[in-house]
Design goal:
Length: about 350
C-alpha cells in the first residue's frame, strides 16, 4: 500500500551523528514523521544543554520538512527539566515551525550524575499537559536506555535484556501507566498519547491490569474511580506497530483495542527493513477498512496531515493507494532530505 504514514522514524543532528550518519531512502509514497533519535534531550542532564539541543533540533528538522512537506512531517523535541520552558519551546515548535506533535524519550535525566529520573506523572507537569491539550497535538512516548544506576542493578549481568529485546518496553510501560493512573487523562481529557512496539506489552495485559488496579487496595491512586486502563485506550491512547511486525500480535491488539487505536510504523533506522515492514503490513489478513485505518487514515486524522503544508488526501481507496505496489520503491533522491542515526538500539 503506497501512501502509508509512519511515525517512529529517527534522525540525528549532523554534528552528533558525525561519521556514523548515513543517507537512507524511504518507501515511495510514504509520509515519514521524523523525530530526534533517542534519548535526545531526555538524555542530557544539564538543563541548559538539553534546552539548547531541543531548539537546535526543532530548527533543523523544520527546515528539512519545509523542503518536502508532502513526504516529511516532524515531532518536536523538548527538554523536560522545566515544565514551563518545555511549554514555551513546544508552543514555538508547533505554532511557528509547524511540528505535528512532540516526541518524549521516556524520563528526563537529571542531577549531577544523570541518575535522577524525572517522570511526567508528577503534578508539576500539569502545565505541560494543559498546553498539549490546548495545542491539540499528539505526545509520542518512546523508550530509551536506563540510567547507569538502573543498568548496574538490573542489567549488568544480563546486558542483552536492557534495550529493545525487553528493557525498553518494561521501563516505558511503567511511565505510560503512571501517567494514566495519576489522573492526567481525567484532568486533561483532550490529551492524546501514542507509543510504539505494538503497545509496549500493555494491550496484552489489559485484563490483568484492570483486574488488579483495585481502588480499595490503592485508595491514593488518582485515576478516576469509574475508569479503567481499557477506557483510556478508547479516548486517549494509541499504539503503533513500530519494530513489531507480528501478524498474531497485530490481530491481538485489534481484538483488544480496535483498529481505530492502531497506526502503522516501522522504527527506522533501528529496524532497517522499510521494505520488510511495508510488505508485511500489505499482506496481513485485514479487512480493507482496517488496512486503510491502520496504514494511513488514523495517523492522517490524529496528526492533521490533511492540512497545509502537508495536504495529504484523506479517504483514498486501496486501488488508489496500490496495495502491494513496492516496485521501484526506493528513490535515491529522497535520501538527500535527511540524515538518520544508524547506531543499533
Amino acid at each position: 500500500m503506497k501512501g502509508k504514514i509512519i511515525h517512529e522514524e529517527a534522525f540525528n543532528l549532523p554534528r552528533l551523528a558525525e561519521e556514523e550518519a548515513k543517507l537512507y531512502a524511504s518507501v515511495h509514497g510514504a509520509m515519514q514523521v521524523l523525530s530526534l533519535t533517542s534519548p535526545g534531550c531526555q538524555g542530557v542532564s544539564d538543563p541548559a544543554e538539553a534546552h539548547k539541543m531541543a531548539m537546535e533540533s526543532n530548527d533543523y528538522i523544520a527546515e528539512k520538512v519545509r523542503e518536502n512537506p508532502t513526504r516529511f512531517a516532524a515531532f518536536a523535541a523538548v527538554s523536560m527539566h522545566d515544565p514551563k520552558q518545555a511549554v514555551r519551546e513546544l508552543t514555538r515548535a508547533v505554532v511557528e515551525l509547524g511540528c505535528v506533535g512532540v516526541m518524549l524519550n521516556d524520563f528526563q535525566s537529571s542531577g549531577p550524575d544523570g541518575n535522577t529520573m524525572l517522570f511526567y506523572d508528577d503534578p508539576k507537569y500539569d502545565i505541560f499537559w494543559a498546553a498539549v491539550e490546548e495545542l491539540d497535538i499528539l505526545v509520542y512516548l518512546h523508550p530509551r536506555l536506563p540510567t547507569k544506576r538502573i543498568f548496574n542493578e538490573l542489567y549488568k549481568d544480563r546486558k542483552w535484556l536492557q534495550a529493545s529485546a525487553w528493557g525498553f518496553a518494561n521501563q516505558l510501560s511503567i511511565h505510560i501507566l503512571g501517567i494514566a493512573t495519576s489522573g492526567v487523562f481525567d484532568r486533561f481529557p483532550g490529551v492524546q498519547l501514542a507509543f510504539g512496539h505494538m503497545g509496549e506489552h500493555i494491550p496484552f495485559d489489559l485484563w490483568r491490569l484492570d483486574h488488579k488496579l483495585d481502588r480499595d487496595r490503592f485508595p491514593d491512586m488518582q485515576m478516576a474511580k469509574n475508569k479503567t486502563i481499557r477506557d483510556y485506550f478508547a479516548t486517549n491512547m494509541h499504539i503503533t506497530t513500530s519494530g513489531h511486525f507480528s501478524t498474531r500480535s497485530l490481530q491481538g491488539a485489534i481484538a483488544e483495542l480496535s483498529a481505530s487505536r492502531i497506526m502503522f510504523s516501522i522504527d527506522y533506522p533501528y529496524e532497517d527493513g522499510l521494505m520488510e515492514g511495508s510488505t508485511w503490513f500489505d499482506n496481513v489478513p485485514l479487512s480493507q477498512p482496517d488496512l486503510l485505518a491502520i496504514g494511513r487514515e488514523n495517523a492522517l486524522k490524529l496528526l492533521k496531515l490533511d492540512r497545509a503544508p502537508h495536504n495529504l488526501k484523506p479517504g483514498l481507496s486501496l486501488k488508489q493507494l496500490e496495495v502491494g505496489g513496492l516496485k521501484g520503491a526506493i528513490y535515491p533522491d529522497d535520501a538527500a532530505h535527511l540524515r538518520t542515526h544508524t547506531r543499533g538500539a
